[in-house]
Amino acid sequence: MNAMLETRNLSKSFGLKRSTFARAASAVGLAKDNQKKVHAVDNVSLSVKPGEVLGLVGESGCGKSTFGRMVAGILPPTNGSITFEGKNATRASVENHLNVQMVFQNPYASLNPRLRVDQLISEAAQYHGILKPADAPQFVASLLQQVGLDPSYANRYPHQFSGGQRQRIAIARALSLNPKFVVCDEAVSALDVSVQAQILNLFMDLRESKGLTYLFISHNLAVVEYIADRVAIMYLGRIVEITDTKTIFKSANHPYTQALIADAPRLDAKVAEHRPIQGELPSPLNPPAGCPFHPRCQNATSRCKEERPALKEIAPMHFSACHLND
Ligand SMILES: Nc1ncnc2c1ncn2[C@@H]1O[C@H](COP(=O)(O)OP(=O)(O)OP(=O)(O)O)[C@@H](O)[C@H]1O
């Protein structure tokens, strides 16, 4: 099946201000004029099929949000391309904005506290001319119902709602532009566990009823195991493993994926099975040579220290970037 969304060698680097760079450079032992860029996302090529949920997982700072923002057209890429339904979507355009919407982690920060719920949900659609002011009350009531909220809440302000309810309002706002693709960036991470399950179920219901496709960014493996069809594992801006969710959790190939899974707390596991991941994420200002995971990998060889492994197909539709497979 043709991809709905495809990225080719998508990259984003951030230049640092001189003073910021000087502090960061001395912290990681770099000469001041050696390297002045953070390669937050580095040559990521992947595709998402219509109706699919692709999970994007990795430790904090590995580049997940930067990738999601580029896909949603909020952040321009430094290099590479984005294709949406076969059309070039690398540069932000109104069409791409309508097709791809984003739901953020913190519904306390993402909703303007001075606007009422009806204004929050209807302003973008009115701005884009897809909603007439006279139709707004009915439009808002319908969206509130679709996200499991009482239409009578339309006149209230964000502070009058719980975290889960606010995230439902943020989802209604994203749906107001009738997107085909939704980027969820840690969309349940700030919520209580019981509320997380309700919001995840709402995402799944909306996938069915509206035929939505998702990029689901999360550092929480349990969440991704529940919701995703396929999982991409990101490390220092690169995809190191990608395959279907069952295979990732049953037979992960990359040592980083294996370490993430061993590190993840599981309700059903014995305490002894929990093995915290060794070491810290290296600074993206000064990434290690060779395989970026080699300083934390117990099986690293001399080749891993020198040569960067490519993402290779190690079994049908199972890709991993690890020299140990050769
Ligand atoms: N605007 C920016 N300017 C400079 N550096 C940035 C900027 N945005 C992100 N970065 C850097 O890019 C790298 C990737 O950040 P990003 O937020 O994409 O990671 P993440 O995996 O989403 O982490 P988190 O879950 O903590 O947000 C980090 O080193 C971060 O400090």
TrEMBL record:
Q: Show where the ABC transporter domain sits.
A: 5-261
Write down the Pfam families for this protein, in alphabetical order: ABC_tran, oligo_HPY
Question: What is the originating organism of this protein?
Answer: Noviherbaspirillum saxi
Q: Name one GO molecular function term.
A: ATP binding
Family label: Belongs to the ABC transporter superfamily.
Q: Which domain of life is it from?
A: Bacteria
Which keywords does UniProt give here?
ATP-binding, Cell membrane, Membrane, Nucleotide-binding, Transport
Designated name of the protein: ATP-binding cassette domain-containing protein
Which NCBIfam families would you find in this protein's record?
Answer: oligo_HPY
BP terms from Gene Ontology: peptide transport; transmembrane transport
> Gene3D superfamilies, from UniProt?
P-loop containing nucleotide triphosphate hydrolases
Q: Which InterPro entries match?
A: AAA+_ATPase, ABC_transp_ATP-bind, ABC_transporter-like_ATP-bd, ABC_transporter-like_CS, Oligopep_ABC_C, P-loop_NTPase
Q: Which PROSITE patterns match?
A: ABC_TRANSPORTER_1, ABC_TRANSPORTER_2
